[in-house]
Amino acid sequence: MEQTLALVKPDAFARKDEVVLKVVSAGFTVEKSAELQLTPARAAQFYAEHAGKPFLDDLCNFMCSGRVLAMVLSKEGAIKAWRELMGPTDSVAARSTAPDSMRALFGTDKQKNACHGSDSPEAAAREIAFFFPPSGEIPDLATGAAQAAPMEGGAAAEPAANAPPARSEGQVRAAALAKEYLETKLTGTLTGALAELAKDTPADPIAYLVDYLRKFNPHPQGSPYAKIVFVLGGPGSGKGTQSANIVRDFGWTHVSAGDLLRDEVQSKSTQGKMIGDMIKNGQIVPGHITIGLLKKAIVKATDAGAPGVLVDGFPRKVDQAGMFEKMVAKAEFTLFFDCPEKVMEERLLERGKTSGRSDDNIKSIKKRFKTFVEQSMPVIDYYEAKGSVRRINATKPVDEVYRTINAIFTEAMQVGNEKAASLTAPAAPPARAGSKPKPQAQLAEVAKMPSNKSEGEAGPALTRHVFSTALAPNVVAEQPSAEGQEMPASAAVPVGSETLPVEAAVAPEPAAPYVAPVVAPAETSLEAPAELSAEPADDQALDPEPEPKPKPEPALAPPPPPPPASDSDVLSPRSDQLQAAPELPEDSAQSPTPMPA
Ligand SMILES: Nc1ncnc2c1ncn2[C@@H]1O[C@H](COP(=O)(O)OP(=O)(O)O)[C@@H](O)[C@H]1O
Ligand SMILES: Nc1ccn([C@H]2C[C@H](O)[C@@H](COP(=O)(O)OP(=O)(O)O)O2)c(=O)n1
């Protein structure tokens, strides 16, 4: 598309909006524009081709008599088209021969003729570069790009009467860059914030703005929420039981996705009925519904000052993991309860005697196991590949399992606290009403508790063994898309040795080293699950309030490095293991309860 330079000269500057309107109506695109004040030196430079001609001085004086609007216009045949729209050089003549032209409408005579346009492609290139140099200077926002500029080459020029102070080309350019920067990085969010502010008229508008901007920051460096740890494992593996222990000792808040969904079922809404049917059938509720509920609960816990939130039973599908990262935050790590089906089945049947749950019966249990193997185990593979899984042997007695978990949380909290202490934050954030103090004393106590790391027989990836027969490659990609579930084939991502779900664009990489398990081609890993972009709108509908408040303390560090491979209870993956085997080892004899065929 051809481009040309157009100027609205000082005599027509006051009517520049009318000029621009006509420009746009004539089908031009204004690619760039800048309002500026020429200096005599710059004007002479611009009209260098007229050097030595008698009218040059007058022309330069006129061009410096006020501000001009410089524009880059584009259109097919833009150079000729703009010159036609400008009309003849002499405005007086233009009024009789081209009465609708710019010069006829906005100019006075041959010199004060309202507009300029390049007369050839070479001139257009030169003039565009003159006003819009390709290598722009970085704006000095601190000094204010729009402030008065020293005149070029020390030349003193009288500013036009009532005209703003003259600016050098560098500062004009800097102002344009600053404007662009603000428009791309801030204006949208800030405008939204101000609109909400005006609606809500809060007593403390500054605090309100701070909250809003943190929540809707499109370029977040950290999460505004309390730390999040995912608690995952098969049904009946003990997630709820152990979460209660963590809450007791570490002051975290337990948020169970299943409980939230069951509460929703109780509401008897249409959505609640749909959720109820899905739970009974062992199906997974669409991610945007669960994430909407989880987000509210996480915000509530954050506001109450919880140092962390245990998100129990989520994500249950790989695409939900990416969706959660995008819509809420990145988890610190995933605590995975490794437990064979037989053990879980016994526990669930026992629990079913008193739980009153519609799904604690053998028919639903079998369906839940199938769903877990096919859809939720790939989530573990996904996080294992990132080195962020803390795998627990969940077959042991409750106290033993908890000792291992306690050690993990103690270490994670200590690492986090050290990191927080080393930060040179100017001041601690103000205490929040109702915040619980961090249970340092409890931490110190639990840190002394013995760990059973050396006890017991090896607890190797039991679930992984048990579930191996069902974990075919590409299991996620090949799964049928059940009605009401949100993972279309296009959104599916092969797991393990193939592709991983897209990294949430907003999130930084975890600190734990990641060595790709076999091959994860970069180009395919960039493919976004469709759900990531498709569902946020729904979620907004579910979760409209701008309620989250800033996190009460600095984000803690990512989890500590995984314990040694010999550890029998905490089966964290290591990069060498991952590289060697997303496929399961053959020694499944170690599994006390092989999966029924
Ligand atoms: N380590 C354990 N050993 C024996 N029974 C357990 C253990 N952990 C949990 N249970 C029991 O198993 C059942 C399921 O545990 P729960 O914590 O509700 O599992 P989940 O939340 O993973 O579905 C409960 O009745 C619980 O008391
Ligand atoms: N993220 C989640 C969590 C639970 N659900 C549904 C499907 C699950 O079978 C039920 C019960 O989940 P819950 O975590 O309470 O229980 P289990 O760990 O399966 O014993 O809720 C879901 O669809 N999505």
From TrEMBL:
<dbReference type="InterPro" id="IPR007858">
    <property type="entry name" value="Dpy-30_motif"/>
</dbReference>
<keyword id="KW-0966">Cell projection</keyword>
<keyword id="KW-0378">Hydrolase</keyword>
<protein>
    <recommendedName>
        <fullName>UMP-CMP kinase</fullName>
        <ecNumber>2.7.4.14</ecNumber>
    </recommendedName>
</protein>
<feature type="binding site">
    <location>
        <position position="103"/>
    </location>
    <ligand>
        <name>ATP</name>
    </ligand>
</feature>
<dbReference type="GO" id="GO:0006221">
    <property type="term" value="P:pyrimidine nucleotide biosynthetic process"/>
</dbReference>
<feature type="binding site">
    <location>
        <position position="262"/>
    </location>
    <ligand>
        <name>a ribonucleoside 5'-phosphate</name>
    </ligand>
</feature>
<dbReference type="GO" id="GO:0005634">
    <property type="term" value="C:nucleus"/>
</dbReference>
<keyword id="KW-0808">Transferase</keyword>
<dbReference type="InterPro" id="IPR023005">
    <property type="entry name" value="Nucleoside_diP_kinase_AS"/>
</dbReference>
<dbReference type="InterPro" id="IPR034907">
    <property type="entry name" value="NDK-like_dom"/>
</dbReference>
<feature type="binding site">
    <location>
        <position position="396"/>
    </location>
    <ligand>
        <name>ATP</name>
    </ligand>
</feature>
<feature type="compositionally biased region" description="Pro residues">
    <location>
        <begin position="553"/>
        <end position="565"/>
    </location>
</feature>
<feature type="binding site">
    <location>
        <position position="351"/>
    </location>
    <ligand>
        <name>ATP</name>
    </ligand>
</feature>
<dbReference type="InterPro" id="IPR006266">
    <property type="entry name" value="UMP_CMP_kinase"/>
</dbReference>
<dbReference type="InterPro" id="IPR027417">
    <property type="entry name" value="P-loop_NTPase"/>
</dbReference>
<keyword id="KW-0539">Nucleus</keyword>
<feature type="domain" description="Nucleoside diphosphate kinase-like">
    <location>
        <begin position="1"/>
        <end position="139"/>
    </location>
</feature>
<dbReference type="GO" id="GO:0005737">
    <property type="term" value="C:cytoplasm"/>
</dbReference>
<feature type="region of interest" description="LID">
    <location>
        <begin position="350"/>
        <end position="360"/>
    </location>
</feature>
<keyword id="KW-0547">Nucleotide-binding</keyword>
<feature type="region of interest" description="Disordered">
    <location>
        <begin position="421"/>
        <end position="459"/>
    </location>
</feature>
<feature type="binding site">
    <location>
        <position position="89"/>
    </location>
    <ligand>
        <name>ATP</name>
    </ligand>
</feature>
<keyword id="KW-0418">Kinase</keyword>
<dbReference type="GO" id="GO:0033862">
    <property type="term" value="F:UMP kinase activity"/>
</dbReference>
<feature type="binding site">
    <location>
        <position position="113"/>
    </location>
    <ligand>
        <name>ATP</name>
    </ligand>
</feature>
<feature type="binding site">
    <location>
        <begin position="283"/>
        <end position="285"/>
    </location>
    <ligand>
        <name>a ribonucleoside 5'-phosphate</name>
    </ligand>
</feature>
<dbReference type="Pfam" id="PF05186">
    <property type="entry name" value="Dpy-30"/>
</dbReference>
<dbReference type="GO" id="GO:0016787">
    <property type="term" value="F:hydrolase activity"/>
</dbReference>
<comment type="function">
    <text>Catalyzes the phosphorylation of pyrimidine nucleoside monophosphates at the expense of ATP. Plays an important role in de novo pyrimidine nucleotide biosynthesis. Has preference for UMP and CMP as phosphate acceptors.</text>
</comment>
<feature type="binding site">
    <location>
        <begin position="313"/>
        <end position="316"/>
    </location>
    <ligand>
        <name>a ribonucleoside 5'-phosphate</name>
    </ligand>
</feature>
<feature type="region of interest" description="Disordered">
    <location>
        <begin position="149"/>
        <end position="169"/>
    </location>
</feature>
<feature type="compositionally biased region" description="Polar residues">
    <location>
        <begin position="588"/>
        <end position="597"/>
    </location>
</feature>
<feature type="region of interest" description="Disordered">
    <location>
        <begin position="526"/>
        <end position="597"/>
    </location>
</feature>
<keyword id="KW-0546">Nucleotide metabolism</keyword>
<dbReference type="InterPro" id="IPR000850">
    <property type="entry name" value="Adenylat/UMP-CMP_kin"/>
</dbReference>
<feature type="active site" description="Pros-phosphohistidine intermediate">
    <location>
        <position position="116"/>
    </location>
</feature>
<keyword id="KW-0665">Pyrimidine biosynthesis</keyword>
<comment type="subunit">
    <text>Monomer.</text>
</comment>
<keyword id="KW-0067">ATP-binding</keyword>
<dbReference type="Pfam" id="PF00406">
    <property type="entry name" value="ADK"/>
</dbReference>
<dbReference type="Pfam" id="PF00334">
    <property type="entry name" value="NDK"/>
</dbReference>
